[in-house]
Write a structure and sequence with these properties.
The chain is mostly beta strands. The protein has strands spanning 2-7, 10-13, 18-26, 28-39, 46-52, 55-58, 66-71, 74-79, 88-99, 102-104, 107-108, 112-117.
Amino acid sequence: QVRLVESGGGLVQAGGSLRLSCTASGNILRLYVMGWYREAPGKERELVATKEGSTITYADSVKGRFTISRDKYTVFLQMDSLEPEDTALYYCHADRIATSAGPLWNQWGPGTQVTVSS
């Protein structure tokens, strides 16, 4: 069993910054992919950023404004120049996890709310 816990969401004015964190815990032997997705009201969940080794992928809408980084089992999302359109519930995602009980895929955190006011 792997647990993901996010923190760092909140309310910020347009142009401001927030830093999200997510830590994975459990009987983890190796964790290959960590990243962030978001879901705005009335919209489907979408990729924000993901990191696998040295490979990083960003959604076009956040390129140049958001930065993903990782320290072992913790992933961060530095969000700068926030826009009202960034308002969403942000989910931490982990994939391809080797545990002492066997492999796991597609694990999600409960989400953290980010609200950007205009």
